[in-house]
Design goal:
With 698 residues, this protein is mostly beta strands. The chain contains nine helices and 42 strands. 14% of the residues lie in helices and 53% in strands.
């Protein structure tokens, strides 16, 4: 029992000794906090007092925590944590010489968006926080600092001036701007003057104000670059607002400005007094746009004068009105030589800055009297259009109007008006009725343009396609039509062609017509009633020429035609078949004419042949058909040529009932739409051409 009492007394004594030791060895948190506040105040020359709860972490090393210290005019500091030798004193604040040393000792505080840490073994220090929405890190040794603000780096000095810090920094990289001003840690606000070169834009100067959330560069000016400008810039909450006024500039200056625009979300208001480029200019340009992530929306775009046109975009809707499309397109640098009349474009505009692209959709377009709807897009320097219309005439885009109506001028006399009207008329057609109006294909200059066109009726010259679809690429060296389909001559035409530019364009055409009508072919020769039945055509043609007449004269290639069934109207061949195959005397010319003039209808089958075209003349030697006669059939052979360039025929159509029987020959010669008809009978053994009147010389 005595041993137990002695043991209990010993434990109580040890506990008492431990308490006394703790009271003597461990610091008093309130006393240490007051001491730290006094030393901090002395270091910065401001009265300081502890104004928040104090606690002590008795780990190793122990940490004193003060929730709040008020520091004179500077205001207050947030959470303060001091370890190691900091408990025995305080360091100089923000880069002053240290009073305490120790390898693992440090002092740090955290306030509104800013943290400060000081290693007590030397005079190195570091500040981290947020300024104008960007992460900020400032590291220094004494008064010399290195700053990293977002992707902007700078070096310079800091110097305390009572309650503020004097800042002198030089930015590093492509914009070596000089920043000089004052930082107020009470408000966490920097006010400074910035000056220096900006890559590609000249020298900038302006007034800067920055806080934890806002960057404001007010009344800045640009000089010594591609243009002179002034404006203001703000960044707040990750969004930038730029208001810029530019005097005179060109496309190179505009490109330099676009490259220098800040990344991220942007509200832009841009005013340019005059924007010039080769061959054109714009005056009074106003642009208000907003960039959100990867999209750019134009709230307003207005151009007072743009090569005689007016352009306006408001709330994303574009409206372009050009009374003279030729003048407008020339002003844009496109070498257009033909008169195209007025141009009107209306549609909703969307811009994608990531791909340097824009889309105008839905679009209403009127040009050269043609109206279409659809979409127009520009991407990576390439223009594309998807258009649809009711009736589209391609003629105005290929045939040049030699004289455009004058823009203005004095009143003309009657004779002057008559001469001007005559001069504006196209030249008279050449042989065969082919046009002499020069052809040219420079509608878009050197730009590349992809067109997808759908039309209820597509017209070019005397030809038209129903429910047509066209896919083409326009370039400086010509036009490539990869797909042309539509209803033609009662059937379906599929074609592809290549048309080169220049003063004497080249044409290469490949085509196929299925289920057409023979009557449409006969109509070319002035008698659509003579032939009935389906028609198929296919071929390849090539030519070159300054106008349609020259192209017709230079035509070359091959055409294949076929008609499995059909009829010849107005002629009944059954009696002729009986006379030619009866074995008796061959009919004379009078009887032959009487047999062919009785009227009626004759059916045929297996009409097929090949036409070889060279220098504008198509020739055939193998076009054959079988006519259904009375008792026996008649075999028909068509030989001769068709002069496309001069629109003349020289053909012989020979009919026979058997190999050794007489042949009736129908000759067609002269103008293709009104040829002279010659009849003859060719007896067995006669050479081709004998027994018929000679064709007239061309």
């Amino acid at each position: 029992m005595n041993r137990i009492k002695k043991a209990g007394f010993g434990l109580a004594a040890l506990a008492a000794l431990a308490g006394l030791a703790a009271a003597w060895l461990l610091p008093d948190p309130d006393r240490e906090a007051a001491l730290l506040a006094d030393r901090l105040g002395a270091a910065v020359g401001q009265p300081a007092r502890v104004a928040g709860p104090v606690s002590y972490d008795y780990g190793w090393p122990g940490t004193l925590k003060i929730a709040r210290i008020e520091l004179g005019e500077i205001g207050w500091l947030g959470e303060i944590a001091a370890t190691g030798a900091a408990l025995a004193g305080a360091a100089e604040f923000f880069g002053r010489a240290g009073l305490i040393s120790g390898d693992a000792e440090r002092l740090r505080f955290a306030g509104d968006g800013v943290s400060f840490e000081r290693t007590l073994s030397g005079d190195a220090w570091r500040v981290e926080g947020t300024l104008a929405g960007r992460p900020l890190a400032v590291a220094g040794t004494g008064a010399t600092v290195a700053v990293q603000w977002g992707d902007v780096a700078a070096r310079g000095t800091l110097a305390w001036q009572a309650a503020t810090v004097a800042v002198a920094l030089a930015l590093e990289g492509s914009m070596p701007l000089a920043v000089a001003g004052l930082f107020d840690p009470r408000e966490n606000v920097l006010e400074a003057r910035i000056e220096g070169p900006v890559a590609g834009l000249g020298t900038v100067s302006g007034n800067l104000r920055a806080s934890a959330t806002l960057l404001d560069i007010a009344a800045f000016e640009l000089a010594g670059g591609p243009f002179a400008a002034n404006g203001a810039l703000q960044q707040e909450g990750g969004r930038t607002s730029l208001d810029l006024r530019v005097g005179d500039t060109d496309l190179a200056g505009l490109a330099a400005l676009a490259a220098a625009l800040p990344t991220g979300d942007l509200d832009l208001r841009l005013r340019i007094a005059r924007l010039a480029w080769t061959g054109g200019e714009a005056e009074g340009l106003v642009l208000a746009a907003a960039r959100n992530g990867d999209t750019l929306a134009i709230d307003e775009l207005a151009v007072r004068a743009l090569a005689g046109a007016q352009l306006r975009v408001r709330d994303g809707q574009l409206d372009l009105q050009a009374p003279d499309a030729t003048r407008f397109l020339r002003g844009l640098g496109l070498g257009v030589a033909r008169h195209l009349g007025a141009l009107s474009m209306r549609g909703r505009l969307a811009i994608d800055p990531l791909i340097y692209g824009a889309v105008l959709s839905p679009l209403e377009l009127s040009l050269a009297g043609q109206r279409a709807t659809g979409a127009l897009s520009f991407r990576d320097g390439r223009l594309s259009a998807q258009l649809a219309g009711d009736r589209i005439d391609l003629g105005p885009f290929f045939a040049r109007a030699l004289v455009a109506p004058p823009e203005r001028g004095p009143l003309l006399t009657r004779s002057q008006t008559a001469r001007a009207a005559a001069a504006a008329q196209p030249p008279p057609p050449g042989p065969g009725g082919w046009g002499r109006t020069p052809l040219q294909f420079d509608l878009i200059g050197s730009s590349q343009f992809d067109l997808a066109l759908a039309a209820r009726t597509l017209v070019f010259d005397a030809f038209s396609l129903a429910d047509a679809q066209l896919a083409a690429t326009f370039a400086a060296d010509g036009i490539s039509v990869t797909r042309l389909v539509g209803g033609f001559w009662g059937g379906r035409l599929e074609a592809a062609l290549r048309l080169s530019g220049g003063g004497r364009p080249d044409l290469a055409l490949e085509f196929a017509l299925a289920d057409g009508e023979l009557a449409r072919l006969a109509a070319l020769f002035g008698n659509p009633q003579i032939l009935r039945g389906p028609l198929s055509l296919s071929g390849r043609l090539a030519t070159a020429g300054r106008d349609a007449a020259e192209m017709a004269a230079g035509l070359g290639g091959q055409i294949r035609m076929s008609a499995p069934t059909g009829s010849i109207e107005g002629v009944e061949f059954s009696g002729l078949a009986d006379r030619l195959g009866g074995g008796g005397r061959a009919p004379d010319l009078l009887e032959l004419g009487r047999l062919l003039a009785r009227g009626g209808r004759s059916d045929f089958r297996n009409l097929a042949g090949t036409w070889t075209v060279a220098k504008g003349v198509a020739r055939t030697a193998d076009t054959r058909l079988v006519l259904r006669g009375g008792v026996r059939d008649l075999a028909g052979d068509l030989v001769g040529d068709f002069d496309v360039a001069n629109w003349r025929l020289d053909l012989a159509f020979g009919l026979s009932a058997a190999a050794n029987a007489p042949r009736a020959v129908v000759g067609l010669a002269g103008a293709a739409d009104r040829p002279r008809v010659n009849l003859s009978v060719q007896l067995p053994g006669q050479a081709p051409g004998q027994g018929r009147a000679p064709s007239p010389a061309r």
